[in-house]
Design brief:
The chain is mostly beta strands. The chain folds into three domains: 111 residues, Sandwich (Immunoglobulin-like), CATH 2.60.40; 84 residues, Immunoglobulin-like (Sandwich); 118 residues, OmpA-like domain (60s Ribosomal Protein L30, Chain: A). The protein is 12% helix and 45% strand. The chain contains two helices and 20 strands. The strands form four sheets. Strands 12, 13, 15, 16, 17, 18, 19 and 20 form an eight-stranded mixed β-sheet that branches. Strands 3-9-8-5-6 form a five-stranded mixed β-sheet, with no helix packed on it. The chain has a four-stranded antiparallel β-sheet with strand order 1-2-4-7, with no helix packed on it. The N and C termini lie close together (7 Å).
């Protein structure tokens, strides 16, 4: 709820012969950037010639006028320009009553215009069950809800970041094993009580396939190997169609080698083979982005000494991942 202060009972006002206080005053003093705080005057009886005079401690003055209000009517005077920051005001509100008498209230209050908190996702670590992110403002706490591909909540955790600086690297973990498609609802509240919500989707699916056999030292796809790629293509399309209701997909074709030969040669060869397969899928009409990358002998499935012939390490992986351009964030303006 936006913080609003009822000030009539707190303001000292000049003595008056009137039997009743003619107006009530309320300040909406905490708002998001781009909006202006307001001072609302609600008439108890008919009043006229409303005059609001304010001096800002940080510099500047303001004068507001309104011709009059009937009993039960209200009018909101906007305060400031909506720029983020904290301001301190002193001033007076004067009104005239039908009896000809005047009434005055002395005012002292502060306003806070809060910049919009924004979540920036850094990365998922699906092996360690960690999500790294930052908030544009000083964060107080975060709530993370983990949802599987069927829409079922599989975990919910809360983390405290009291005292974290704006844009600091923050981290929250979860306790269950991620599914192939996992969605994360992240709600981060800043120290002023405003919350930013992010919906992120992780996707990592290794497509099972028969390995393409290349001639030694070559990245040319032989005609006899095309049927293997066509079957892999069918599986990639089927899996991406299933996942697209959650997130936009992309395909990474990752080439790997064993430790036979020089590291430089293996890096080049793995990159050329991955690129050749990625281009094959692209020319065939794959409806999602695809790229090829080589890792040489740096990511073996089986650790071996140098100059070791290991079939398990000579491979090309087809990995569907989430295109993070599909992540979304929203802001809730709910102050303390």
């Amino acid at each position: 709820m936006i913080r609003a202060a009822l000030l009539a009972a707190l303001f000292a006002h000049a003595p008056s012969r009137a039997a009743a206080q003619p107006v009530m005053i309320k300040v909406q003093n905490q708002v998001p950037a781009g909006k202006r705080p307001t001072l609302t005057v609600s008439a108890v009886i008919r009043v006229s010639d409303l005059e609001l005079t304010l001096t800002r401690a940080e510099g500047g003055t303001a004068l507001g006028r309104h011709p009059g209000l009937r009993g039960g009517q209200s009018f909101a005077f906007p305060i400031g320009d909506g720029a983020p920051g904290r301001s301190h005001y002193q001033g007076t509100l004067k009104v005239a009553m039908e009896s000809g008498e005047s009434w005055q209230s002395d005012l002292t209050f502060e306003t806070v215009v809060v910049a919009e908190p924004k979540i920036t996702l850094a990365k998922f670590d699906l092996e360690k069950n960690l999500l790294d992110f930052s908030l544009s403002r000083s964060a107080k706490n975060a709530d993370l809800t983990v949802i599987d591909e069927n829409g079922k909540t599989i975990d919910h955790v809360t983390a405290s970041f009291e005292g974290a600086l704006p844009e600091a690297r923050l981290q929250v973990g979860w306790n269950v094993q991620s599914t192939e498609v996992t969605r994360f609802k992240l709600r981060v509240t800043d120290v002023d009580g405003f919350a930013s919500n992010g919906l992120f989707t992780s996707l990592r699916v290794e497509i099972p396939h028969d390995e393409v056999n290349f001639a030694s030292g070559s990245a040319v796809i032989e005609d006899s190997e095309r049927a293997k790629l066509d079957e892999a293509y069918r599986r990639i399309v089927a899996t991406s169609d299933k996942a697209k209701r959650f997130v936009r997909c992309r395909l990474l074709v990752q080439g790997h080698t064993d430790t036979l030969g020089t590291k430089e040669k293996n890096q080049r060869l793995s990159s050329e083979r991955a690129t050749a397969i990625a281009l094959y899928f692209k020319k065939k009409g794959l409806p999602i982005p695809v790229s090829g990358e080589g890792h040489g002998e740096d990511r073996p499935r089986v650790k071996t000494p140098d100059e070791t012939d290991e079939r398990a390490n000579r491979r090309v992986d087809y990995v569907l991942t989430a295109d993070q351009a599909g992540a979304s964030t929203t802001t809730e303006w709910k102050g303390r």
